[in-house]
Amino acid sequence: MITKLGKLVHTNTLRFKLVVIMIANVLIPILLLGSISFYSIYSILQNNIEKGVQSRMKEIVHTMQSSLDNLGYASRQLTLDGDIGGRLEQYMNPTIPNNLKSDIQSDIESRLTLISYANQGLGAMYYFIPEQKLNLFETMLIKKNVNPMDFPVLRSEPVTLYQGPHPSIYLYSDNMVFSIIQEMTGNKNLPKTYVYIETNFKVFRDLFPKDAFGFHVNYLITDGSQHILYSDLAKTYPVNSQLTLADNKASQIVSKHGQKLFAERGEGDWSIVAVVDKNDLSNEIISWSTRYTLIAIGSLAISLLLAWMTWRIIHQKLHLLKNEIKMTADLQFDRPYVPMNIVEFDEVIDRFYLMRTKIRDLIIEVEEKEKNKRKLEVQKLKYQINPHFIHNTLNTIQWIARMHKQEEIVNLVSVFSRILHYNLGKEGEMVQIREEINALKDYVTLQKIRYNHHFQVDFHIDPLAEELIIVRFLIQPLVENAMYHGFADDDGQIHVRVFKESATFFIIEVEDNGQGMTLETKEKLLYAENDARKSGLGIGFNFVNQTIREYFGEQHTIDIHSEIGKGTLIRIRLPILSGGMTE
User: Fold this and answer.
1) Same domain, 561 and 449
2) Do 448 and 562 fall into the same domain?
3) What is the DSSP letter of 341?
4) Contact partners, residue 522, CB within 8 Å, separation at least 6
5) Are strands 228-231 and 218-222 parallel, antiparallel or unpaired?
6) Are residues 233 and 133 in the same domain?
7) Which residue did the predictor score with more confidence, 384 or 160?
8) Which one, 2, 60, 276, 396, has least CB within 10 Å?
9) 136 versus 406: which is more confidently predicted?
10) Three-state SS across 27-67?
11) How far apart are CA 72 and CA 162, in angstroms?
12) Count of domains in the chain?
């Protein structure tokens, strides 16, 4: 595993260099553009977010001011109208008959109902007299033991109090609302009477949504002296505590407790403050950074993929070229032309094939020259003696011997003539095994006469192999080596075997029971250069070896099995020829 990883990251490989270049091509623009873009977009997003929050805060303040103005308008309708004051004075008079009082009550309630329906943003409303702890004309069920004068004052005017936010005075609701208390004026006979009107609970809910800015927001509301009247963060900013803001700014941004406070002042010096966590403000920037990082990672992954694909294409072409070079080194010139379909590589492979063709032609030319040289050497050996002169001389000797009735000499000369005729004949280089064996038998007969029958040669010829084609004068040198160099006693025995091994190969074996040879001698015969073979028994073996190579090519095998004192076996395996020499 470590070795594979080492190869993968080896700095001298083409793959490594391509990956580095691709990564650099992607990372350098990404880092340069990313750093510039980050600072620019950070500033833009930061300013846009802050301006967006301030703009939204202005809308909230405006909407809240409209709600307060709506309360003021409704309260003035119920207090400044002199007719309503007179009707209240009549209603409070104990001498007024009940039926008339009932009419007055219905009239006032109908006016309250009309105002309530005309202003959907209004909630509970009624008249109350604090001195008498009396509530009159309630439009909704009111909580008991609740004094409206105790609610926090948002803004104060001579006869008007704007209050809130505070829980609704409605019996079945604790929703936060704004309210107004308006004192009735112009009726001296009435005790101090006030009208109470609060907003619908939806007003506060719609004014202060938690996610209006795309991130979580908490709200504070302060009065003119910057005391906190309402707080979503009671632990950090308790109600009734002082919030330090600049007195002379309608809009401002303050940082406190790892948070940003966006304050917007309304009429009457009350303020609404949006409290935003700084981390929430940076979410947009973080989101942009995340998207940019993902794009960078994606671009890097694509660049790595492209680098791998590029390396794969180049590696395939280089591997193909490497195989072509290897096959040429192994002298395999028959591989067809394979285009690479890339102009630059095709130019290289074209030049390589041209070089390969020239190398093949040179090798063929050298082989042809060597082949002709070996043939010339063989022909020189054969024609060193004039065959016609020898045959004529032997015929003369045979005729004289017959005249003198020397039959043994006649037979000896007859056998010798047949041997010379076979070896020096011009009928062709290739003969049948039958002819080669017959000539070999004549040669053995001649040697027996010469050595007075001191050895025995046995022939074991497969009938199926008799008509196979062989090179003339191939087996005789092996038998001759066995006779000259193998025997030390008079009981020498030689076995000559020829048989078919298969449909495509046949075997020649020459075995003797002579002295045998050492391993060193065997190695010299098989593997030494020609000069090492040109002495002793190596002369005949060298001739056999060269002849086989000339006519049978590299398809043959020659094996020598020998033991000192036991004898030697030479085994030759040759391809079966169809007629003449192999192509």
Assistant:
1) yes
2) yes
3) S
4) 560, 562
5) antiparallel
6) no
7) 160
8) 2
9) 136
10) HHHHHHHHHHHHHHHHHHHHHHHHHHHHHHHHHHHHHHHHH
11) 8
12) 4
Listed residues 174, 205, 236: the one ending a domain: 205
Band of residue 532 on the pLDDT scale cut at 50, 70, 90: very low
Type of residue at 225: S
Instruction: For 75-136, give the DSSP string.
Output: HHHHHS-HHHHHHHHHHH-TTS-HHHHHHHHHHHHHHHHHHHHH-TTEEEEEEEEGGGTEEE
Residue 342 to residues 314, 338, 348, 350, 356, Cα–Cα distance (Å): 10, 12, 10, 12, 20
Model pTM? Answer: 0.48
- What are the two backbone dihedrals, phi and then psi, of residue 125, each rounded to the nearest 5 degrees? -150, 150
Q: Which two tokens stand for residue 486?
A: 């193998």
Prior bond of 575 cis (ω within 30°): no
Tokens for 392, please give them.
Answer: 């004529």
What residue type is assigned to position 408 of the chain? Answer: E
What angle is formed at CA 48 by the lines to CA 46 and CA 53, rounded to 5 degrees? 100
Q: How far is CA 241 from CA 167, 223, 245, in A?
A: 19, 11, 13
Q: CB–CB of 200/139 below 8 Å?
A: no
Structural domain including 215 reads 209-281
User: Are both 344 and 262 inside the same structural domain?
Assistant: no
Q: What is the pLDDT of residue 86?
A: 74
Shared-domain flag, residues 488 and 519: yes
What SS3 state is found at 376? helix
Quote the CA–CA distance of 152 and 222 in Å, as a whole number: 10
Q: What is the pLDDT of residue 254?
A: 74
Strand order across the beta sheet in which 122-129 lies: 134-136, 122-129, 194-199, 176-183, 160-167, 153-157
224 and 162 housed in the same domain: no
pLDDT in tens, 81-137: 657 777 777 787 778 888 888 888 888 888 888 888 888 889 999 989 888 888 888
Q: What letter would DSSP give residue 449? A: H
Higher confidence at residue 508 or residue 332? 508
**Residue 165 located in a structural domain:** yes
Q: What is the CATH number of the domain that holds 532?
A: 3.30.565.10
Average pLDDT, the chain: 79
Residue 141 lies in a domain: yes
Dihedral (CA of 68, 69, 74, 80) sign: positive
pLDDT in tens, 278-320: 776 666 667 777 877 788 788 777 877 777 787 777 777 777 7
Domain final residue pick, 319, 351, 380: 380
Contact 116, 200 (CB under 8 A): no
**Which residues, listed in sequence order, are joined to residue 271 by a DSSP beta bridge?**
222, 265
Instruction: Provide the terminal-to-terminal Cα distance of the chain, rounded to the nearest Å.
Output: 51
Tell me the torsion sign for CA atoms 460, 465, 466, 468: negative
- Do 223 and 178 reside in the same domain of the chain? no
Tell whether the model's pLDDT for residue 397 goes beyond 60.
Answer: yes
* pLDDT at residue 411, rounded to an integer: 73
Q: Looking at the domain assignment, is residue 520 inside a domain?
A: yes
pLDDT of amino acid 533: 44
* Interval 357-380 mean pLDDT: 77
Kindly state the tokens that stand for 236. Answer: 């950090």
SS3 275: strand
Residue 234 located in a structural domain: yes
* 373 plus 270 within the same structural domain: no
pLDDT computed for residue 510 by the predictor: 93
